[in-house]
Amino acid sequence: MFQRSLIRASRQAAGLPLRHQPTFSPVRQQLTATRLASLRWYSEPAAKEGEGAAESKPAAETQSPESSKLKGELEKKDKEIIELKDKYLRSVADFRNLQERTKREIQVAKDFALQRFARDLVESVDNLDRALSTVPSEKLAAENNDLVTLHDGLKMTESILMSTLKKHGLERFDPSVECEKFDPNVHEAVFQTPQPDKEDGTVFHTQQKGFLLNGRVLRAAKVGVVKNS
């Protein structure tokens, strides 16, 4: 500063003109200062953003494997829960089906536990029925009081026996009483004969009565069937 003053004084003493000072230097200085400030303002956020990215990048890198591992474990647990729930529901359904099947089998065993005994018993019922049918109705008169009494006793015994058997599911049926249509599931055709006053396939005669055990055919009825054609 002191040297600049000496140079200016020597120039004035020698009569030399002073160095021309441009009139726009303050404006240039102001523009330069503004440009520097703007450059500094742009550079600082960029630097901050770079610093934030530099700081966040290691954090993301350190958290990503852990979060992906936890996510994989959660998905695995969800799959296990779904599989266990499905197995549980299937087990419950199988157990209920087993209960129902066992209940039906027990009921069937109860219904047909007396099947062999019933087969042997129907022979005795047949003999009692034959004994009652061999007595002609004209013989049941007042002069044959003993025969009438015996017949009535046998008839009463048969009624009580059939009522008792019916309580246990054993029933006797006679298809010729109601002129039923022939059914191969419950009837056994012994012979066929024409009957002009009856339709074809009608049961008109019962040779041996049939028996049902709890709705199932224990013995088919032996019958005669109408055949006109």
Question: How would the blueprint of this fold be written?
Answer:
Elements: H1 2-14, H2 25-111, H3 115-133, H4 145-167, E1 170-173, E2 187-193, E3 203-208, E4 210-213, E5 216-219, E6 221-226
Helix pairs in contact: 3-4
Task: Name some characteristics of this structure.
single chain, 229 residues, Nucleotide Exchange Factor Grpe, Chain A, domain 2, three-stranded antiparallel β-sheet, 6 strands, mitochondrion
Largest sheet: 3 strands, antiparallel
Q: What's the order of the H and E elements?
A: HHHHEEEEEE
| Overall outline | rod-shaped
| Beta-strand residue fraction | 5-15%
- What's the Cα radius of gyration? 60 Å
Helix content: 55-70%
How many angstroms does the end-to-end distance come to? 153 Å
Tell me the CATH topology of the domain at 112-226.
Nucleotide Exchange Factor Grpe, Chain A, domain 2
CATH superfamily of the domain at 112-226: Head domain of nucleotide exchange factor GrpE
How many helices in DSSP terms? 4
Number of strands: 6
Strand order of the main beta sheet, please?
1-4-5
Proper CATH architecture of the domain at 112-226: Roll
Name the structural class: alpha+beta
Low-pLDDT runs of 5+ residues are 20-25, 45-49, 53-61
How would you state the average pLDDT, rounded?
79
**The CATH class of the domain at 112-226:** Mainly Beta
Describe the protein in words.
By secondary structure, this protein is an alpha+beta fold. It has a domain of 115 residues: Nucleotide Exchange Factor Grpe, Chain A, domain 2. It is built from four helices and six strands. The strands form two sheets. A three-stranded antiparallel sheet has the order 1-4-5. β4 and β5 form a beta hairpin. α3 runs antiparallel to α4. The termini are far apart. About 9% of the residues have low confidence. GO terms for molecular function: adenyl-nucleotide exchange factor activity; protein homodimerization activity; protein-folding chaperone binding; unfolded protein binding. Essential component of the PAM complex, a complex required for the translocation of transit peptide-containing proteins from the inner membrane into the mitochondrial matrix in an ATP-dependent manner. It is found in: Mitochondrion matrix. One of its GO terms (biological process) is protein import into mitochondrial matrix. It holds the Pfam family GrpE.
